[in-house]
Amino acid sequence: MISFIQRLEDLAAEDGRATAITCGAESISRSELMECGYNLAVYLHEHGTREGDMVTVAVPNSIDFFIAYVAAWRLGATPQPISSRLPQRELEAIIELANSSAIIGVEDQAFVDRTCVPLGFRAPNADASHLPNVVSKAWKAPTSGGSTGRPKLIVSGDPAALDPDAAVPLLMQKGGCLVMPGPLYHNGPAVWSCQAWLHGLHVVLLAKFDAMGTLEAIEKHRGTVLYMVPTMMKRITRLPESDRLSFDISSLQVVWHLAEPCPEWLKQEWIDWLGPERIFELYAGTEAQTATVITGHEWLAHRGSVGMTVPGTVLITDEDGNELGVGEMGEVWMRSLRTTPTYIYVGATARTREGGWESLGDMGYLDADGYLYLGDRAADMILSGGANIYPAEIESALQEHPLVKSCAVIGIPDEDKGNLIHAIVEADVDALSEEELKSFLGERLVVYKIPRTYEFVDFALRDDAGKVRRSALRAERLGNAQ
Asked: Given phi > 0 = left and psi -120 to 50 = alpha, else beta, which region is 465?
């Protein structure tokens, strides 16, 4: 095993002028990226960051993201990515939870007791040879809202190290090009981008997703690997056919899609367009207890599946915890066959059962061949645009408004995003407006968590025990819409 830093140094020594990262009109070579990262590492070290610390990375898709990761790994620290658009209060909650020694992407002195590095900052040239030669014990620590509505960190159980003789992961090939239209503060885009970068691929980022821009990037940079979520896939297929087919994307070898269920019709369209040999789906949680992968050819034989499970890693149970048989829908439990943990929660506790099983709240069933099929999510999680959104977090913010008596947040099906967030609010509609609520939530929640639609009611939405049946409320509204 060698450290990520050693791997990146080896790639720079092999061809320092090769482009490592491109974002929009800006590109940086392997050697330049290492130099900028080491300069930042020295700067952070001078300001107190040490081995084992968290370094929060709050930058939009940009070269700065990778510079921050080099700096953190060089110090044996753990990069902790978050959205650059978080409201101040949510940002503060995560910083407190992580106890970050440094925050990349905020204004100087934004946190007086921590090192603050503005977006675009380039540390002065410095000799990093005096820094200790250490390896980060956890290579990443992304966040999740959690079913409690409070943020949690999902700290990787893997160090910032790799086997240089192992096969290149995720069907990538050294010398290829990953086109990444997803936001790097989400786990999937960060994992794909870092693995591509560490294995000698050119990583091409979009500042934000754009259907035409994604196809343009594939053509311009001869992209070989593409990361998608179904919402992105839908928007690309909706382009006028004359536009969609005008791009030369023949270089594309692999299209990965994940993060949310993909409608069968949409997957079939991509298979018809690009061929089943190029379409791959992965199902896993950030916790990485296990994963399934399904090829386009397999999917055609097992329509709707997310892939064959590794024996002993997936269990389906009913509400009472009894194991279910083939074809029976229930809660999906997963476990790792490793002897070491795949992750550690900070700020949360896993849902577990005897035997090392853990649940992320998914529902599903297995067929006779061991292929997994997913149903609706348990625990009322909302999947919107590839992001996991927990109603409790939004309800907690809504409840802070003095005129809100009770509330419930549910997902309403949407062709584009999968689900739209719908807030049901017990309040006097004459005293409280939708506009006021949106403004109120805008100070407390990141944009994509703010409900798109609101419904005011004059009855209590929770029982005496404080419980709310979101599934019943959702079914009621879907029934009314039919």
From this structure: alpha
Residue 264 has pLDDT above 90, yes or no: no
pTM equals 0.84
CB contact set of 445 (below 8 Å; sequence gap of 6+): 87, 90, 393, 394, 397
Which part of the chain has CATH 2.30.38.10?
277-379
pLDDT band at 480 (very low <50, low <70, confident <90, very high): low
Q: Please provide the average confidence, as pLDDT, over all residues in the chain.
A: 92
Considering Cα of 116, then 122, then 128, then 133, what sign does the dihedral take? positive
Task: State the alpha helices, DSSP H only, in 87-239.
Answer: 88-98, 187-198, 211-221, 230-237
Sheet containing 292-295, strands listed edge to edge, beginning at the edge strand earlier in sequence: 26-29, 19-23, 202-205, 177-180, 225-228, 254-257, 279-283, 292-295
- pLDDT class for 482, splitting at 50, 70, 90? very low
Give the 3-state secondary structure of residue 423: strand
Whether CATH 3.20.20.30 fits 381-481: no
Mean per-residue pLDDT for 184-189?
93
Q: How far apart are CA 361 and CA 147, in angstroms?
A: 9
Q: Rounded CA gap, 223 and 215, in Å? A: 9
Handedness of CA 365, 367, 372, 376 (dihedral sign): negative
Q: Which of 482, 412, 423 is nearest to 457 (CA)?
A: 423
Exposure class string for 348-360: b at 16+ Cβ within 10 A, else e = beeeeeeeebbbb
Q: Which two tokens stand for residue 193?
A: 């981008």
| Distance from chain centroid for Cα 28 | 24
Fold held by 2-276: Rossmann fold (3.40.50)
Q: Which CATH topology does 277-379 take?
A: Luciferase; domain 3 (2.30.38)
Q: How much is the average pLDDT of 312-326?
A: 95
Q: Where in the chain is the domain with CATH 3.40.50.12780?
A: 2-276
What are the angstrom distances between the C-alpha of 424 and each of 334, 434, 457? 33, 11, 7
pLDDT of residue 181: 95
What stretch(es) of the chain map to CATH 3.30.300.30?
381-481
